[in-house]
Write a structure and sequence with these properties.
Elements lengths: L4 E3 H5 L7 E7 L3 E7 L6 E8 L3 H14 L2 E8 L9 H14 L6 E5 L3 H11 L4 H30 L1
Parallel strand pairs: 1-6, 2-5, 5-6
Antiparallel strand pairs: 2-3, 3-4
Enzyme class: hydrolase
Protein name: Putative pre-16S rRNA nuclease
Subcellular location: Cytoplasm
Length: 160
Amino acid sequence: MPALILPLIEAAGHWPARGSLLGLDLGTKTIGVAVSDPDRRLATGIETVARKAFTADAQRLLALAAGRNACGFVLGLPLNMDGSEGPRVQSTRAFARNFARLTELPIGLWDERLSTAAVERELIANDVSRAKRAKIIDEHAAIYILQGALDRLATLNRAD
């Protein structure tokens, strides 16, 4: 059975109470990957996957998830500033649909507006060279996306 693809809050209801989540930042050339601790408090970068073909990319992501006993994925959804969906969102949703056929782990979609821009500003503020930024930007964006999702989930859990 294919994985569920839901907004983050709805997906959280399908994940066990504990277990790592993998955060993904889909770029056109690379996929940034981050992982949470099992208690879902802190996101840490794993790697930047150079995109090749969908099947190869998906197999790498599934191997990373299995190696960290992940129970779900958080996929950054690049909405436009006004909240509308453009071509990048359509591409992300298509990736999610295809990826869901290969796993049963629920996929949560999380608004990632300005994540790459925020990370870029932070790296520049820390005097990271342009060449180094290009190599790590997607992984850091995945950390930013996953940490934002973890923080939102923690807020919901406190409200319960």
